[in-house]
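Subject: for your reference before the review

Hello V.,

The reviewers asked for a structural picture of the protein, and I figured it would be easier to keep everything in one thread rather than splitting it across files. Below is the amino acid sequence we used in the manuscript, unchanged from the supplementary table.
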Amino acid sequence: MEGLTSGFVTSLLMGAIVAGIPLLLAGLGEQLSEKAGVLNIGLEGMMLAGAWLGFLVAWRHDSMALGLWAGAAGGMMVAALMAGLCLWLRLNQIVIGIALTLGAEGATALLQQMAFSHSYPRLGGVNTLSVPWLANLPVFGKALFVQPLVVYLAVGCVPLLAWLYRASNAGLALQAAGDKPAALDAAGVSVQGTRTLAVLTTGALAGLGGAYMAQIGAGIFVPFMTQGNGFIATVLAMLARGRPLWVLAGALLFGTCLSLTTALQVLGVNLPTDVIQMLPFITVMLVLVVFGRRASLPAALGTLWTRGAR
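And here is what came back from the structure prediction:
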């Protein structure tokens, strides 16, 4: 019984990391974008673009690393389109975000069919890095400390962004772009430039999350495979109140919900897949009920910047 329980915990943790890392990367990107005053509803489309392009490059060049870079570039391309339409052509952020998501869903499904017809090729195994000593810990060692390099880099982004927000000029510029853009403009810093850079970085992180999902999480690209992860990441960013550590905690929580199917199979519990797939969204609603009123958003979030306006 003890071995079965430890196997359940290990399986649950491993599944939580596989499902949570895309949420973490996309959530951190959304948090950065929102700090700058841009509501990035197109996150789902950026993840899908990164997933498809990253998988395609990884499959054709037999390189996971190259595929992850390509995924980040794919997400950034969608983000560049959003920045151009919303920040420079001054179109509505919510409408454009939804349009980009729908467009990415259709485009990636069409490109997948054109590239592979009705076949779904799979990628090979994934190289992992073991943390000395810690990897040998019972139950937790294999789950937490034997992971691909991108997992460690994603978690490392949490303290890096926390420092950026609190102790750097770039963090102050981001905060000002979201709360007091007029003050940032008066200080001689471009509000549009700051917001554009934030949106592009968001796209790169979301695309990387999508590429991780396709290459490492599934080993295959399937149309519409993000299944609402971009919207869950948006909720995480809003509820985290500017704290990257809270994004990490939320990503692990929702990742655990998503991984319950595999973990319960270890215990011999057979639940309908549809029931398990509902859990993340039920969790989102419960979290919103409990913490939604405490969410703190930038004062200028979603508003267009006009120089000279106060």
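For the response letter, the relevant points are probably these. The longest strand covers residues 129-130. The chain has a mean pLDDT of 87.

Happy to draft the paragraph if you're swamped.

O.
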